[in-house]
Amino acid sequence: MQYRRLGRTNLQVSVLGLGAGYLSVVDRDLGTALFERALAAGVNYIDGRYGDSNEKLAPVIKGRRSEVVIASKTNDQTGDGARRRIEEDLRDLDTDYIDVYQVRAYTHDMLAGHLAPGGSVEALEKAKAEGLIRAIGVTGHSSMPVLTDAIKTGRIDTVLFPLNILQDEAWASLIPTARAMDVGLVIMKPLATGIIPTELALRWLFAQPISTAVPGVTTMEQLEANLAVAEMSDWTLSPAEMAEVLRIRAEQEGRICRGCDDVCGPFPVEGVSHVSFLIFQGVSLNHLRNFGTEGFRQHRWASADYEHMVQGFRKHLADTRGLLKAGMKDVEARCPYGVRVTDLLEETEGRLQEFLTAAESAER
């Protein structure tokens, strides 16, 4: 396993990390086993605080806390709210400190709230001075300019953002700014939520000047595939493999949503504020796409999470049908990336209908 410096934090992190979002909905034993296997293989960067991921991670780090770099995050823009989140993490993980604490900033308004006097960043700076956290990070799925502006304040040590062979907007300003200011680069969605083949995606990414990538996993097979790439001695892509990268880019043109719903909205169905969730960003929907109906139904989900996802699927189907009936031409016209929203919603509708029909049949 290769280790790299996490920017000015000077922490040494494994080039392959682990995102806890996807494993937060698997059963407790499987989630803990995934953490255990990752750490045994040399993975030391965990991007957490999703669902019950803290409870699954806590027993794994007991007695070996110094071997692990743990990142957590908060939406809360208030200082009091951010402080509560830190204290909850410390309690749940039974630890004295969190290595990286990140604020979620999807829009400039969110960022302004975090940076305001009495806001979350001020609280994180105080917690850092007290030794409760070691570094302050920013994260976002959509707007690279927002993350770039956050870095320019000089108050940010790490940035977590999407980068893969299909989403490369970060090269325009985010990555150059972060490197100039020695901010650690942490990559989410390295496989574009499972769309890109693992080996090709990670070999391309590990050859870039990043600190670590944190793909999510829900099976041991997925983790082993990631580890196999991380343990390679050479990640250089051959001309034939680079041609495959270009082929995938062309094939996926107009299919990768960046999550900037504030740009393509508003949407013509009451209560729907994030069409990106339905076509690309929704974790449960991505699980369904990747596993298929039967694979999803047979996987080792935590029972309560499985029921919650199934209930959510019913609402997602209604929202999807409502959007399709209303028409997406205006939304598509506002999308700066030319995403074929209608096509993707139709695919979501088909997957949801197939799954719910099978689930309801099994219940009878």
Describe, in plain words, how this protein is organized in 3D:
- With 364 residues, this protein is of the alpha/beta class.
- It folds into two domains: 3-236, Alpha-Beta Barrel (TIM Barrel); 261-359.
- The chain is built from 16 helices and ten strands.
- It has an eight-stranded parallel beta sheet.
- Helix 3 (79-93) links the parallel strand 5 (69-74) and strand 6.
- The radius of gyration is 20 Å and the shape is globular.
Describe the SSE topology.
Layout: E1 3-5, E2 12-14, E3 18-19, H1 28-40, E4 45-47, H2 53-61, E5 69-74, H3 79-93, E6 98-104, H4 108-115, H5 120-129, E7 133-139, H6 144-152, E8 158-162, H7 174-180, E9 184-188, H8 198-206, E10 212-213, H9 220-230, H10 239-251, H11 261-264, H12 275-281, H13 283-298, H14 303-326, H15 329-334, H16 341-363
Helix pairs in contact: 1-2, 3-5, 6-7, 8-9, 13-16, 14-16
